[in-house]
Design goal:
The complex is a heterodimer of chains A (328) and B (519). By secondary structure, chain A is mostly helical. Chain A has a single domain, classed as Orthogonal Bundle (ABC transporter involved in vitamin B12 uptake, BtuC). Chain A contains 15 helices and 4 strands. In chain A, the strands form 2 sheets. In chain A, strands 1-4 form a two-stranded antiparallel ribbon. In chain A, a hairpin with a 2-residue loop joins strand 2 and strand 3. Chain B starts with a helix and ends with a helix. In chain B, strands 6-7-8-3-9-10 form a 6-stranded mixed sheet, sandwiched between helices. In chain B, strand 4 and strand 5 form a beta hairpin. Chain B is built from 18 helices and 22 strands. Chain B has 3 domains: 164 residues, P-loop containing nucleotide triphosphate hydrolases (Rossmann fold, 3-Layer(aba) Sandwich), CATH 3.40.50.300; 73 residues, no CATH class; 245 residues, Rossmann fold, CATH 3.40.50.300. Chains A and B meet through helix 10 and helix 11 of A and helix 11, helix 12 and strand 18 of B. The structure holds adenosine-5'-triphosphate and magnesium ion. Adenosine-5'-triphosphate (ATP) binds next to strand 2, helix 2 and helix 15 of chain B. Chain B: Pfam families: ABC_tran. Chain B: It is a peripheral membrane protein. Chain B: One of its GO terms (biological process) is monosaccharide transmembrane transport. Chain B: InterPro entries: AAA+_ATPase (IPR003593), ABC_carbohydrate_import_ATPase (IPR050107), ABC_transporter-like_ATP-bd (IPR003439), ABC_transporter-like_CS (IPR017871), P-loop_NTPase (IPR027417). Chain B: It is found in: Cell inner membrane; Cell membrane.
């Protein structure tokens, strides 16, 4: 509990250990990410190659987009379990639209719109009925997946359109398209959270909903918007995934909601709301991606990867807690 | 009598202190909050710990209770002469240190009993299951001792702030303490409860318990304390027997300069007082709500401050909350500027120019993990935004001016509100509502936990706002405040308005008579 780092840094002289300690306090999760990269650069062949790095970014891009939406939901003190299912429904619907001969942009937009609609319904029920978000989105987790099966008949639908495929599998200047999409989403989200009234109201609602209401903040409307944005981003993720898989699959996106939640928490956002940053979330996403990629390069099988991933999530959050306590 | 008291004080000096602290220093992220402070506590004494908001009183006592640790080489606590260092609050508690915290720390979804007995071992049967009957009985005993008629089975979330404070006190009394710290225990209590509390304090004194008493209410200090210690800006200033000081002297020690007594409003300049006819800004006609408020009618005129007095539970807070759209009306009509309006949410109220400083700053007012500046401007972000995008430059400038105007003591406007002292937190909430420049200002215990200097400032500010034409309705449980500031006083009892007193005719006795009329 005592601020030992503080007293140490006041002493004259330079110590590697102290410098590291200071860095650790300031950077936290970034340090864990760097540490992971250093370890993997020795143990995993070709880990640091540009091609592999781009591959990591491409692989995390969809989870990253979902996690951006999840961040604002969790900042309000809520949770959105429906994003993985929404990825599937959005993929199925947009590919079907494309197969029906609709303009590819309109087809992709329809996927995004479906996601928005799912989010709108989540938001409406969470805000108006005061049901816990966990329950509301557990419901949509199930019915949205169901709809994806019903509409697709349970089979993947093949994507023909090249423009659509480009969004998921193409590249501009050698960099995969999904990476641009991810970057765009994070820049916009950073701006929203830091510089807009809506963004500040998100923090206020998460910090103290009662006080927010008494301050005249439109709590219900803000909540509806937050869930709608999360749904919209899940829809976008579904379109990108369909473009990458060249098909709309009703089984797509399973467990994505849990990966997104894990990334948000790794990024330091408090599950009780009101505290956290979007910059943290991207670090969390990268930590998860780097572990998965590194283990694959090291030929660790997928089952063991899950075991390691789970352990790392808990360990990283634990380390971060320790840091938070010593800094206080 | 006085001689006896003095004798006892002399005896104190001869006795060894049960606990003393020496050379205590505490630094929070490079801000020094306490610097070399000390205190000596003797058995059977009430020791008044005095100081302005942010002087460091609560921090000092949190160190005593094991919640904070002093800096390295930052002093020593001695229990019966032996140096000690608490590992954690539980250890301090086991050694007989009990605290009533300034901020309420209750679990809202548990019963009163569970909250009172939290931290002690619940009676269990042979299967290891809790014997709830006995738990409730134990809690009932403590409540009876306090003369409280609360039902131990009730959930804390259903209680008013004052009732919660009673539970907090009961918790501290539920186990036998040698040192009892009371950090502003009376901040939201009315005279009736305070009297009971003082009776209890008297009993504890006789049992040899040593009590640290923190309060900004001067009358209380001189009624119950034996000795005092004054802190200013984290420094120890003075200690001594209470007979060697007087209110003016104490204030001078606390503030470091001479300060006039309680603020007294000049001859009010509102139209009503000057015999002019003016239209009311706000009028209530036969308002009832679903809980306690019954058939309340009142008018508020521009430029006047109306005090709303009454006992805890009289329905004052409920009335104001219904008026602000927090709770629903059952019947009645609200008129703003002569026109009937529907107020169904705080948003409607704010749109009609009504502002509301709620009674509980932590639960209803503050965004604890956000910065001071955002807390101040949260209701007015719109004014400092263009198409939804906040101009931080404007926000910073506006926040700075309120911080200066209300003299809020902070390290920087970016500081988290949770780190401010209680009184400064209160000023942040008030600043927020001044920022919307309302026509009607509803104040629910606006100076709860605020020191004398700041209290005077807040009264001056409110008075100045009234001068400029704002109508103010102020709830306060502190009668001197009501009497000093109001142009007109309404008294409530059991949900009804039982009387109105003009500034000239009002006295504490008359108010208390009207407030207890239902009983
Ligand atoms: N955890 C913390 N981190 C940083 N600063 C703190 C922290 N706790 C308290 N402070 C600062 O220490 C100072 C003293 O605070 P404290 O709460 O002890 O004052 P106080 O005398 O109890 O005031 P009040 O009468 O308003 O309750 C304040 O300036 C406050 O901002
Ligand atoms: Mg205090």
């Amino acid at each position: 509990m005592r601020g030992n780092t503080q007293t140490i840094s006041q002493k004259p002289g330079f110590h590697i250990g102290n410098a590291l300690n200071g860095l650790w306090n300031r950077l936290g999760m970034i340090m864990i990410l760097i540490l992971l990269c250093v370890v993997l650069s020795f143990t995993a062949p070709n880990f640091l190659d540009t091609a592999n790095m781009l591959n990591v970014l491409k692989q995390v891009s969809i989870i990253a987009v979902l996690a951006a939406g999840m961040t604002i939901v969790i900042l309000t003190g809520g949770i959105d379990l429906s994003v993985g299912s929404t990825v599937a429904l959005s993929g199925v619907i947009s590919v079907m639209a494309s197969s029906a001969g609709v303009n590819p942009f309109v087809a992709m937009l329809s996927g995004v719109a479906v996601g928005y609609a799912v989010g709108l319904i989540n938001g409406f029920f969470t805000a108006k009925t005061k049901l816990p978000a966990f329950i509301v989105t557990l419901g949509s987790f199930t019915y949205v997946r169901g709809l994806a099966y019903v509409i697709s008949g349970g089979y993947p639908i093949v994507l023909q359109n090249e423009t659509f495929k480009f969004v998921g599998g193409g590249a501009i200047f050698g960099i995969p398209t999904p990476i641009y999409i991810m970057l765009f989403v994070y820049v916009v989200m950073f701006f929203i959270l830091k510089y807009t009234m809506f963004g500040r109201h998100i923090y206020a609602i998460g910090g103290n909903e009662e006080a927010a209401r008494l301050t005249g903040i439109k709590v219900e409307r803000s909540l509806i918007n937050v869930y709608s944005i999360s749904g919209l981003l899940a829809g976008l993720g579904g379109v990108v995934l369909a473009g990458r898989l060249y098909s709309g699959q009703p089984t797509a996106g399973q467990m994505y909601e849990l990966d997104a939640i894990a990334a948000v928490i790794l990024g330091g956002t408090s599950l009780t709301g009101g505290k956290g940053k979007i910059q943290g979330t991207i670090i969390g996403v990268l930590i998860m991606g780097v572990i998965g990629n590194g283990l694959t390069l090291m030929d660790v099988n997928f089952y063991w990867q899950l075991v390691v991933k789970g352990a790392v999530i808990v360990a990283a959050v634990l380390l971060d807690r320790l840091r938070g306590n010593s800094a206080a | 009598m006085a001689v006896k008291e003095m004798l006892r004080n002399v005896l104190h000096e001869l006795k060894d202190p049960v606990l003393h602290m020496e050379g205590i220093s505490k630094t929070f992220s490079s801000v020094t909050v306490l610097n070399n402070v000390k205190i000596e506590l003797y058995p059977g004494e009430v020791h008044a710990l005095m100081g302005e908001n942010g002087a460091g009183k609560s921090t000092f006592m949190k160190i005593l209770a094991g919640i904070h640790t002093p800096d390295d080489n930052g002093g020593q606590i001695y229990l019966k002469g032996k140096p000690i260092l608490w590992k954690d609050p539980v250890e301090a508690r086991n050694k007989g240190i009990s605290v009533i915290h300034q901020e309420l720390n209750l679990s809202p979804n548990l019963t009163i009993s569970e909250n009172i007995l939290m931290g002690s071992v619940f009676p269990k049967n042979r299967l290891g299951l809790v014997k709830w009957e006995e738990v409730h009985n134990l809690a009932q005993k403590v409540l009876d001792q306090m003369g409280s008629n609360l039902n131990p089975r009730q959930l804390v979330s259903t209680l008013s702030v004052a009732q919660q404070q009673m539970v907090e006190i009961a918790r501290a009394l539920s186990f036998k303490a040698e040192v009892l710290i009371m950090d502003e225990p009376t901040a939201s209590l009315t005279d009736k409860e305070i009297k009971k509390l003082f009776d209890i304090i008297g009993d504890l004194k006789k049992q040899g318990v040593s009590i640290v008493y923190i309060s900004h209410r001067m009358e209380e200090i001189f009624k119950i304390s034996n000795r005092f210690t004054v802190l200013r800006d984290g420094e120890w200033i003075a200690s001594g027997p209470i007979e060697e000081t007087n209110p003016d002297h104490l204030v001078k020690l606390m503030v470091g300069r001479d300060l006039k007594d309680l603020f007294n409003r000049e001859k009010p300049s509102h139209p009503q007082a000057n015999g002019q006819k003016a239209a009311p800004v706000l009028e209530l006609r036969n308002i009832s709500d679903n809980t306690i408020v019954k058939n309340v009618s009142l008018k508020l005129f521009p430029g006047e401050i109306v005090g709303l007095a009454g006992l805890v539970g009289a329905g004052r807070t409920e009335l104001v909350r219904a008026l602000f759209g927090v709770s629903n009306l059952k019947s009645g009509e609200i008129l703003v500027g002569g026109a009937s309006v529907k107020i169904q949410s705080p948003i409607d109220a704010i749109a009609n120019g009504i502002a509301h400083v709620p009674e509980s700053r932590k639960e209803q007012g503050l965004f604890l993990s956000m910065s001071v500046k955002e807390n101040i401007l949260m209701a007015e972000l719109k004014k400092h935004s263009k198409s939804g995008i906040v101009s931080w430059k404007e926000v910073n400038a506006a926040a700075d001016s309120y911080i200066k105007e209300l003299n809020i003591k902070i390290a920087s406007p970016e500081q988290q509100v949770s780190n401010l002292s209680g009184g400064n937190q209160q000023k942040v909430v008030i600043a927020r509502w001044l920022s919307i420049a309302p026509k009607v200002l509803l104040l629910d215990e606006p100076t709860r936990g605020v020191d004398i200097g700041a209290k005077t400032e807040i009264h001056k500010i409110v008075s100045g706002l009234a001068e400029k034409g704002m109508a103010v309705l102020m709830i306060s449980s502190e009668l001197p405040e009501i009497l000093g500031v109001s142009d007109r006083i309404l008294v409530m009892s059991e949900g009804r308005i039982t009387g109105e007193l003009s500034r000239e005719e009002a006295t504490q006795e008359k108010i208390m008579y009207l407030a207890t009329r239902g009983e």
